[in-house]
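Changelog note: in this version the structure field was regenerated for every chain. One regenerated record is shown below for reference.
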Amino acid sequence: MGIATPAKRAQCANCLRPRSTCICRWITPTTSEVELVILQHPREVDRAKGTARLLHLSLPNSRIVVGEVLTQSELQAVLTEPMLGCAASACRQAVLLYPDTPQGSALGLLTRSAALAQTTSDPSRLRLIVLDGTWRESRKMLWLNPPLQSLPRMPLQVPQSSRYSIRKAQRPGQLSTLEASCAALSQLEEDAEKFRPLLNALDGFVAQQSGYMKRTDQ
């Protein structure tokens, strides 16, 4: 007689989580002029505390690409190919959301005009590349994908305190993927209020996850 395997929990087809922990209630449709491409480390895909999926489902002008090391053609698509539904002629300048380092080519963003002077005067011509993973994972992704290293970088203008209390930061000033992306989009479009609903959705998501964690500890 074979050993019975545990039945797999039914999964939500939209957020890709078990239906019992579905996060679709927090999806907050938000338009953005800047395109957002989330390069997600494979280990982040099944992390219940991750915010990238919620961010992607809330931003129609976004996509997620999973992989630690991308092929030349995959990277080319990430950096240059038009997003689904966009005109083939809609070429965008890719900008990497990442702190400046001696090897980086930081934009030194202070205002939108100062930032875009080196790229374009129109936020709708920008593609923001965000690395989703732990600090160590994101550094490794940057190292293993050399074309990313040559992109102009966007360090966040003003470090803000994180409301992402369910996951321990590895260093001071670190934000969740959703928080960092919202801060960057707010800078580039000069409209913090536009993306505030996404942060409110994050608060609900964090409260939901905290409830699960408390039940597990009991």
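Spot check on this record: The CA atoms of residues 129 and 169 lie 21 Å apart. The helical segments are 52-58, 72-80, 112-116, 135-144, 146-149, 177-189, 192-217.
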